[in-house]
Write a structure and sequence with these properties.
Blueprint lengths: L2 H29 L4 H26 L16 H20 L1 H30 L23 E4 L16 E6 L10 E5 L20 E5 L11 E3 L4 E3 L6 E3 L5 E4 L11 E3 L5 E3 L18
Amino acid sequence: MSNEQARAESRATAFFVLSALASIGLAITYWQGGQPQIEGVLLAVITGGIGLAIVSWAKHAMPHDLVTEERETVASTEEEVEAFSADLERGAEAFSADGESSAEGIGRRRALLVAAGSAITAFGAALLFPIRSLGPRPGAGLKSTPYAGRHKRVVTADGKPVKASDLATDGVITVWPEGHTDAADSPTLLIHTRKSQKFKPRKGREDWRVGDIVAYSKLCTHVGCPVGLYQAQKGLLLCPCHQSTFNVLDGARPVFGPAARSLPQLPLGLNDDGEIIARGDFSGPVGPGFWDRDRH
């Protein structure tokens, strides 16, 4: 092996090692929360290191000479056999004399292959970390809200608890679970229906109201717009985005428009201070129906 080839292999090994270290740095950066500028520099070092290593290896360390051989006959003459024997003996002597150099070349080649494998493996592993940028797996997260768990008071946007006496007949207010007034999946409509209106509770929800006050998610089950227009005389809720209309007196069943799923209902109760509480989570996933079409 020539000195130029040896230098090329050493150079390629160094590039592969640099790429592997940059891949480790990229993985650590992602794990610590990410930083776009640093990630960009590390990615450039990774890909550039692998590219330079391959180019250096291919251009300077691999053989490029063209060898052709005429094939006229497979039979060897006595002179050719003697010449072959002589070449073999000379080769053995040369190998013995240059054994240390050959071993060094083999060791250098092994180091190059190990470095190449490490660089590619580290880069592949680092590419798995951006999956964290996709966020947590949806799992049950799309089917539960901060109302889930122990009983929680419902509060207005300014955090004030609501009593049944605060809501006049035909009145509608928006509330959230206490401590979660910023939760995008938790806005809830408290609606005080008329005593003269016939309310049809869904099976198993007979005790989900407080007097004539009922609670439904404010998020339309079509595309998630806020439902807030209440027609008190007929007990209808209207979504202003696409005119989906829900019957408050019949489990917020859609009676007009593109929405195909009822508004989820919230089970209500009272605490010892007469404040309205949520006794659990909504009856189903809130928001657009495409999240979970098989639950109603």
